[in-house]
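Students often ask why inverse folding is considered easier than folding. One informal answer: many sequences map to the same fold, so there is more than one right answer. In these notes we will look at a single instance of the problem. The structure comes first.
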């Protein structure tokens, strides 16, 4: 499923494209920024994480995760 979320960090508003996918038994979220940068996020228990290849800071990951959680998709995370 495709979504757009609004994110405000450091006083800058951004619209991010978010796509939910399944990788093995995990629900993962591919996040694309306007600059073209991409990150893959996933949730383990209550903590949002990223792939090792991605370079987002923890504050950004938490903010994006909070927006994804607010979509209220009734998804159960592993």
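Output (designed amino acids):
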């Amino acid at each position: 499923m495709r979504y757009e979320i609004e994110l405000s960090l450091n006083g800058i508003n951004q619209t991010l494209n978010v796509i939910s996918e399944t990788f093995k038994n995990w629900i993962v979220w591919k996040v694309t920024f306007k600059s073209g940068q991409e990150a893959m996020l996933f949730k383990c228990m209550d903590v949002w994480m990223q792939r090792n290849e991605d370079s987002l800071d923890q504050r950004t990951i938490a903010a994006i995760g909070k927006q994804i959680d607010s979509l209220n998709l009734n998804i159960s995370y592993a």
